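hiii, so i know i said id send this last week but things got crazy w the move. better late than never?? heres the sequnce for the chain we talked about at the cafe, plus the structure i predicted for it. fair warning i was half asleep when i ran it
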Amino acid sequence: MPNQRKHRRLAAIMFTDIVGYTALMQQNEAAATALRARHREVFDHQHQLHNGEILQYFGDGTLSLFQSGMEAVECAIAIQQALSSGEPVPLRIGLHTGDVVFDGTDIYGDGVNLASRIENTCPPGAILLSAKLNDELKNQRHVSTQSLGYFEFKNVAKAIEVFCVKNDGIHIPDAASLRSKQNKPGQSIVVLPFVNMSADPENEYFSDGITEEIINALTKIQGLKVIARTSAFAFKNKNMDVREIARRLGVATILEGSVRKVRKRVRITAQLIDASDGTHFWSKNFDRELEDIFALQDEISLLIADQVRENFGHFEIQEHLVNAPTSDLTAYDLYLKGRYHQLRWNAKDLLRAAELYEASMQKDPTYAEPFFGAGLTYCILASWNFMPHEEGMRKANECLNKVAPMREQSALGLFANATVRFWGEWKWQEGH
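okay and structure toks below
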């Protein structure tokens, strides 16, 4: 039986997005909240006046529909003119007329996809629209548009001519700069291993751990392609042109940085690089107390995601990407050391990893990750005959069983459980 809730509709589609909202939230939450409130007030009012139907508010973005392409453009002009006065709201708007599919709570279709791609290309203060929608504006002298040329968009079969609105108060973008930006290969990033700049070379475990935590945080963002740790760390200590690294991995953006840990303070330097030409387009230094390490990881990850979105197109970003897994920094430090030794994959380091995980578990029995790490490590030790198989598997299962309720929320937990079932117990179906 077909899904009776599924239906199609031809409509004028509007996507909008506040540029720089996430970064502003990090700097001044009250100002960011006021900005979004003003945007929504204007947005709601103008949609009522122009018969628009607001389908979704998602963070700093919106999706809405109109029965008339003319009303959609008039609404967009009114919104931009209103938000450009006083304290301006840096909004970008993309419009297209096309097919929309409603399937329960899901909204999709080629028309939705193209409107989103056009909005991704739009600079703040501008209104971009497809040629199809522009055709509906002919003989409407109160709306002025101009062609910016043809653009190729991801998942769109042929190049699309894009127009901009030229009315008073609307930013007119430079076509060449838009084309340069639009041709970049999408929302994708590799986080290269951060360099240990501490006086003690043994602090490398900490810089590696921070790198992995940022990778894990960024993978939570739907729509952002993040290269896995194994592939990223293959370039550790390699003196290679970043453009070549990006070419091999197929990414648009590279994050590189350094970590300096001195007693109870940490300095992290991060730079984002445009892979097309090797230029830096964002960099920042972070100086914090170690006790703020999780808030710092969250701040860095959010700012990185926001910069990728600013330069390569919209995707939704959660309010937080990193939550503190423990309040005991010694337990966290021991876990990072254990992870560092475990990933060296030799008998001596695996045995040392198990000791460090055990010490972390002792410091904070509610901190799940060291239990998962220990379970994985004991399984590998047993499977590779680095310790008696029965003893290793008993310890592995003991560790995993103690934190079983938290397994589904942890990638390491799921991986450790699958490893134990598959490699340790040869239960292939349970290991899938």
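btw DSSP finds 16 helices and 14 strands in the chain. thought thatd interest u
miss u guys!!
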